[in-house]
Amino acid sequence: MSENKVILVVDDEKDIVEAYVGFLTPTRTSTQKVSSRGGAGAPAAAAASEYELIQAASAEEALKKVEEHYQAGKRIAGGFFDVKLEGGMDGLSLIRELWKKDPQILCTVVTAYQDRSIDDIDLLFGEKFKDQWDYLNKPFTRAEIMQKARQMVASWNRREQLKLAQEQLIHAERLAAVGQVARGIGHEFGNILQAIVGKADLALMETSDDKVKEKLKTILSASDRASLIVRNLQFFSKKQAAPAKTALDKIFTNTLSLIDHELKKHSVKIQQKLEPNAFVKGNAPELEQVVLNLIINAMHSMPSGGEVELGCGIEGKFARAWVKDTGTGIPPDVLGRIFDFAFTTKGEKGSGLGLSIAKKIMEEHQGKIEVESKVGQGTQFTLVFPVFEGG
Asked: Which listed CATH number (2.40.50.1070, 3.40.50.2300, 3.30.70.270, 1.10.630.10) goes with 6-140?
């Protein structure tokens, strides 16, 4: 991934914009200002300090240029925003509009006025963006602008690298989960093929049309079962999908098609309490990964067999889904650590990533994962989502 060094500068004073340009896009031969107040300094540093600037004198112009930039397939790392701007929108409102388009942009609020305190701005932007903005008073110096730009660009690129690494980790864990059920799926396919071949052989021997049709129906049913498993396995293993209206009961039924044989082999009975209209905005493969990990954990907690209850439904403004087992339970001294990265009680048999990734996926869905457990009685994991709002 190439480094993103694109910075948006929004100020309605031409001299101030020129100061940003001089500070952030120096040439080897030019002489630069050292402050927004004016004054010349030494020749600019090497080109390694240069940034790509998008300049705008108003919020409306900034939104138009940003839209053009994004349509070209580019991203913006950060920006400097004057609070007082000509037109109907000030710099703070502009920042909020830009975050609707790209919540990853890092922002520095720049003002010569003292009518908006840091506490006021913090309240306006809210908890979600508390670590994505900074503050600078005019007049500013070249050193201040260079340092703010350096911090914004470096932080944005680190965040993107971390996001990419997390996506790769989620995908790797998903494939590992598929591997855990692959043997069972292979065995089930053996049974399906046996049914198909056996019924086909018998159909060839029959002389009655009705009996041939009966055996062909069995063949078609087994083929449909095999096709369903293949489709769900392919869908589950996708790296990512766009968030969309998703039915929680379908998440459970699709996941069960992958692991049904393993559950039967381990004498695990499934009780389903799945309401059909529990909709959330979600990434279906990722939610299936969460459910699959929870069901596998439940199965492992019942080495001699048991029962797992799968449920989902709507409670007020929230959708809930749960996996409840009758297993060994989780000791209190372990319960507080189960979502920690790479924490496992399974030794070499576990990666310790399943629950930490499940927690991250739920947070990305603006939801959370809760757990209740009693030693010797079982464990329940509950997934809580905002209810889907839309058509």
From this structure: 3.40.50.2300
pLDDT tens string 360-374: 889 889 999 999 999
The domain limits of the chain are: 6-140, 166-386
Residue type for 64, please?
Answer: K
Contact 214, 208 (CB under 8 A): no
What six digits make up the tokens of 313? 């439904």
- Which residue(s) pair with 322 in the sheet? 311, 382
Token pair of 326 as six digits: 């009758």
Query: In whole angstroms, what is the distance from residue 131 CA to residue 144 CA?
Result: 19
What distance in Å separates the CA atoms of residue 174 and residue 288, rounded to the nearest whole number? 9
CATH for 166-386 is: 3.30.565.10
Stated as kind and residue range, the H or E segment containing 238 is none
- Using the predicted structure, report yes or no on whether residue 343 has a pLDDT greater than 60: yes
320, β-bridge pairs: 313, 384
Closest to 319 measured CA to CA, from 383, 366, 379, 253: 383
Distance CA 7, CA 151 (A): 12
pLDDT digits (tens, 9 = 90+) for 97-136: 999 989 899 999 998 766 677 888 888 888 888 888 998 9
Contact 94, 107 (CB under 8 A): no
